[in-house]
Every structure is written in structure tokens, then in C-alpha cells.
Amino acid sequence: MASSAPIELYYWPTPNGWKVSIALEEMGLPYEMRPVNIGIGEQFEPGFLKISPNNRMPAIIDPDGPDGQPVSVFESGAILQYLARKSGQFYGSNERERIAADEWLFWQMGGLGPMAGQAHHFRSYARKIEPDESKLEYGAARYTNEVNRLYGVLETRLALGHDYIAGPYSIADMAIWPWILPDGQGQDLNDFPHLKAWHERVGQRPAVQAGRAVGKELRGNLAADGKDAEAARKLLFGQRAR
Ligand SMILES: N[C@@H](CCC(=O)N[C@@H](CS)C(=O)NCC(=O)O)C(=O)O
């Protein structure tokens, strides 16, 4: 199952990065972390754009890809599916379970991730850019409400008696878990008891803890005062076509 040459993980410690570090830990695939410091613009370097044309991390290079040839993959959902296929793990054991894993994986990629990202932006980082609070209120309320709705969808799903989102523990859990950050998203997990229990259950897994800890010493705070955080905000927010 495991290739001899380690997978190169292009990474920064954020929720999208954690999805892949958690998956690699869970699957027992050897990997080497290559930091992409998005706060100083390493995501725009030509070498990185070759493997990740959307200038975002995470991305991977697997030296032992299909037919034994190297392959690069960008987009965390595509990476999770690739690693699950490669390792034969955490993608259900039949087509029905794979369909469920895909449904919830895409739900995270198209819904929870982007909406929660906007909630973080309007509730926290934007305050450092737009001093007029009244201009932030609509966006903050819109995305906080949408995250609340999405937490409710997870609550309903888990209340059906599932221990994990798609049935058996899968890449769908690995995609969703890193994005349940209630403090930054204006939510209270006590309002969602099944989601809270699932969050604790997944968070107790040693591989989840190991994946979540990868590169933790690198993580900065985009809402912080100071020159570095200000420069990072300038670089990250308000990007247009290059
Ligand atoms: N849909 C992408 C999103 C990745 C993403 O947004 N990555 C952020 C950090 S969490 C990034 O690299 N940002 C760099 C930038 O905005 O320039 C995925 O899931 O892989």
C-alpha cells in the first residue's frame, strides 16, 4: 500500500491543510511536509503554481502515482479522494458508502468550507481592514447564519444514529472536522449535541491529533496587530486576476 518514496505535502497549518495532514496520518502513508507560507506569498511562486494553478495550498506530489509515475494533485477534496483510492481506506466498502462519502465531501467543499471561511473573514479579519463596523454587519450576519444552518444539517444527519457523517469513518469526516471551529464562526456547539459528540469522537483519534499538530509552530494569526499580520492581510485579501 505505502509507496517507498514519501508523498510531498505542500501545506500551511489551516483547516484545508489539516484535512490532508489528517488523511495522511490516518492512512499511514509516508509524507514530507513542505511549508507554503501563504502570509508571505509563497503560493504565487512559479514552481508552486505548476502543481497548484489556483495559488492555494494544500497540494501534493506523489512520486509513486498512477503507473508508478509522479502525479501532482491540488484541491483538498481531490487529494482526499486520491489518497483514499491509493490506500484503499476511508472511502466506504461498497458503492453506496462511497456515494455517501462523496456527497458529504462535496457538501463540505462547496458549502461549509467557503461559508465558514467568509464567516471568519467578516467576524474577525475584516475588522482590521474596514474600521466602519456597520459595513461588516450584513456580511457577518449572512455567513454566521449560513454556518448555523450548516451545523444544523450536520446535527440532523448525526441524530439519525450515525457515528460518522457518511456511515463508517471516512474522508468526509476528515474534510468536515477541521472546519468545525465554533468560536471563530459565532456558534455554540451546545446547541448541536450530536455534532458536539461527533466532534469530540473524531478529535480523540490519535491520527487526527497528529495531523492537526503538523506545522503548528508555523501558524500566525491573521487578525493580529503588527506588521507581519498586516502584510499578510494585504497579500491575501482583495486578490484579483494576475
Ligand atoms: N478549495 C481549496 C481551498 C484552499 C484554500 O483556500 N487555501 C488557502 C488557505 S486555507 C490558501 O492557500 N490561501 C492562499 C491565498 O488565498 O492566496 C481546497 O480545498 O484545497
From TrEMBL:
It comes from the Bacteria. Residues 94-222 form the GST C-terminal domain. Signal peptide: none annotated. InterPro entries: Glutathione-S-Trfase_C-like, Glutathione-S-Trfase_C_sf, Glutathione_S-Trfase, Glutathione_S-Trfase_N, GST_C, Thioredoxin-like_sf. Coiled coil: none annotated. It holds the Pfam family GST_N. Residues 4-91 form the GST N-terminal domain. This is Glutathione S-transferase N-terminal domain-containing protein. The lineage of its organism: Bacteria, Pseudomonadati, Pseudomonadota, Alphaproteobacteria, Maricaulales.
